[in-house]
Design goal:
Order of helices and strands: HHHHHEEHEEEHEHEHEHHEH
Strand order of the largest sheet: 5-4-3-6
CATH class: Mainly Alpha
Distance between the termini: 40 Å
CATH superfamily: Winged helix-like DNA-binding domain superfamily/Winged helix DNA-binding domain
Shape: globular
Oligomer: single chain
Radius of gyration: 19 Å
Strand content: 5-15%
Low-confidence stretches: 1-22, 113-117
Number of strands: 9
Largest sheet: 4 strands, mixed
Structural class: alpha/beta
């Protein structure tokens, strides 16, 4: 059984590559500062840092920092910091319960929706899994996101990877893809993956919807399909997902499936937390998981 991965280094900003998706997060001057400020907030949320302290971290005047932060998050830094707390996570669990009961029931029996985008999920067959991507052409690209650079990868059959680039990752992002898809042909093509990032972080509706190509065990695929039913701005527990796919006793195995998810945000494993409200066990770092939940709460609050 896969173990939950502990916190890793948070993403580092990089210059936007060709094919970058326009958004409030990709201003060449502001993006590194906001990324650093979000990282600081997520790591020090228990202290509820002041506006002056956050602005100092970003080397900006408090008024200017507040303005660009609100453009990024839709709410003030103070309000965003409140979204990162255990108390907020517990409140989300209470508020999400009735919504998720209906969503999970529907999600396992029909198409799922993410940001009002039609989304379908196809699992590789055991033979294809064993072949490690033989006869597949994977096009990939690095793009800016609200949380630093991400690597996206697609095939003719769907999206096969979306992940945050971390400080300790290989300098060549394709190395990570090679580990999972050793027999596939890799082609750097940011233009082919730009729409993935626009859909994941900008809510841009693609023609024909979003299609995912996942590689995992039958249990992992069942968990990932269940995750697709969790709406933005809501969270659930590992135990609740386990009850949906098989038995409450499988909560730990659900954590392992979440840790094995290679399509972040679109398969929203970050929306699964402990019943105590603790936010951890995220493949791309615990502070980033808190930031994603806080960002989605902010988007919901701003609507």
């Amino acid at each position: 059984m896969a173990e939950l991965q502990e916190s890793r280094t948070t993403p580092l900003p990089v210059p936007p590559p060709p094919g970058a998706v326009a958004g409030p997060w990709d201003d060449a001057a502001d993006e590194p500062r906001i990324t650093a400020a979000i990282r600081y907030l997520a790591e020090h949320y228990t202290e509820q840092p002041s506006l002056d302290a956050l602005a100092a971290q970003a080397h900006l005047h408090p008024h200017h920092f507040q303005r660009i932060f609100k453009r990024w998050a839709g709410v003030s830094p103070k309000r965003f910091a409140q979204f990162l707390t255990v108390e907020h996570a517990k409140a989300l669990l209470r508020e999400s319960a009735s919504v998720l009961d209906a969503a999970l029931d529907v999600g396992l029996s029909g198409p799922s929706r993410l940001h009002d985008l039609f989304l379908s999920c196809e699992a590789m067959t055991p033979g294809e899994y064993k072949a490690a991507g033989r006869d597949l052409v994977i096009r990939y690209g690095v793009h800016p996101s609200p949380f630093g650079p991400v690597l996206a990868a697609v095939t003719d059959r769907g999206i096969c990877f979306l992940g945050f680039l971390l400080a300790e990752d290989p300098l060549d992002p394709a190395n990570g893809l090679s580990a999972d898809w050793g027999s596939a042909t890799l082609v750097e093509d940011p233009a082919a993956t730009a729409a993935v990032v626009a859909a994941a972080f900008g809510g841009v509706r693609p023609d024909g919807g979003l299609h995912l190509l996942v590689k995992g065990t039958n249990f992992q695929v069942k968990v990932w399909r269940a995750l697709l039913a969790i709406p933005p701005g809501h969270v659930t527990t590992y135990r609740r997902i386990a009850e949906t796919v098989c038995s409450a006793r499988a909560a730990r195995a659900v954590g392992g499936a979440c840790a094995a998810n290679s399509i972040s945000v679109l398969i929203p494993c970050h929306r699964v937390i402990r019943s105590t409200g603790v936010i951890d066990g995220y493949r791309w770092s615990n502070p980033l998981k808190r930031s994603l939940i806080g960002w989605e709460s902010a988007q919901t609050a701003a609507e």
